[in-house]
Design goal:
This protein has helices at residues 36-50, 87-95, 104-115, 164-167, 170-177, 181-189, 193-217, 232-243, 249-254, 265-271, and strands spanning 2-7, 11-18, 21-29, 57-62, 65-67, 72-74, 84-86, 99-103, 124-129, 133-139, 142-144, 158-159, 162-163, 221-225, 256-259. It contains 10 helices and 15 strands. Helix 6 packs across helix 7 (193-217). The strands form 4 sheets. It has a 5-stranded mixed sheet, with helices on both faces. The radius of gyration is 19 Å and the shape is globular.
Length: 275
């Protein structure tokens, strides 16, 4: 049995994984504005609740740059007190099992490759759309993390007046239309014209993000996850229209763009860190 943790600024989730399946899971709100020790304490409590004598290791996905060899996380997104946390060392000392740490978007991509929509592809980009934009890269069937697990941070590339993350995450809705992505989706589902036009605008930006991914990695498949992915039907057409200006039509014709179907895929990916 493996334990997998998905740490985010909003929630902390943990699951027991056996044979590529989540057999038990739970989660709590993350006290993201609290001290380093308070956040760590919540994680440790969750592990204690799930720990058994059969646990062979713990895999953790964190929204940050990670020294994956030493298990040190730096400047965790939306958790200001986590500037430099030696997470692997701390948890291994407390629980006496191997601990593996990586970027959360990398865990998403790895999960999709091994257990989800990417199983039939060797070159995959996993794209998470939510509070931010995260990207995980699979090359020749293996996770490519870069030197600091920062490979694929396409959301941080300059775009228009800001960067791709600003125009392709929840900030786009709040800052430009004073509406949350969730409300925009609910209103679009009721054929609200205002909301449908917001999603049309959003799709243009996603299409340009897709073109950046194609220029950079030329993957067989791009798999979309995160909270915004559930609204894919509302922006897919304008996304495709935006992508139509990509200069290599054969690339455009062959790439598959699919939506993640497993809500536990990031946990499964984190469990796959354990070797």
């Amino acid at each position: 049995m493996k334990l997998a943790i998905d740490l985010g600024g909003t929630n902390i989730r943990i699951g027991q994984i056996e044979g590529g399946s989540v057999v038990r899971k739970t989660g709590i709100p993350c006290p993201s504005q609290e001290s380093y020790s308070e956040v760590l304490s919540r994680i440790e409590v969750l592990i204690e609740q799930m720990m058994t004598g059969q646990v062979e290791g713990i895999g953790i996905g964190v929204p940050s740059v990670v020294d994956s060899e030493k298990g040190i996380v730096y400047n965790v997104a939306n958790i200001p007190s986590w500037k430099e946390v030696h997470l692997k060392a701390v948890l291994q000392e407390k629980f006496s099992v191997p601990v593996y740490v990586n970027n959360d978007a990398n865990c998403f991509a790895l999960g999709e490759k091994l257990f989800g929509e990417g199983t039939s592809f060797n070159n995959v980009v996993g794209l998470t759309l939510g509070t931010g934009v995260g990207t995980g890269i699979i090359i020749n069937g293996k996770l490519y993390s870069g030197h600091n697990t920062g490979a694929g941070e396409i959301g941080s590339l300059p775009y228009l007046k800001r960067d791709f993350e600003y125009y392709c995450s929840s900030a786009f809705f709040v800052d430009n239309y004073q509406i949350s992505g969730k409300e925009a989706a609910e209103r679009a589902a009721c054929n609200d014209t205002f909301a449908l036009n917001i999603w049309k605008d959003f799709g243009v930006h996603i299409g340009n993000l897709m073109k950046a991914i194609l220029f950079t990695y030329d993957p067989e498949a791009i798999i979309i996850g995160g909270g915004i992915a559930t609204a894919f039907p509302f922006f897919v057409e304008s996304m495709k229209e935006s992508m139509s200006t990509f200069p290599y039509p054969e690339t455009l014709k062959r790439v598959r763009i699919v939506v993640s179907k497993n809500e536990n895929i990031s946990l499964l990916g984190a469990s796959a860190l354990i070797v």
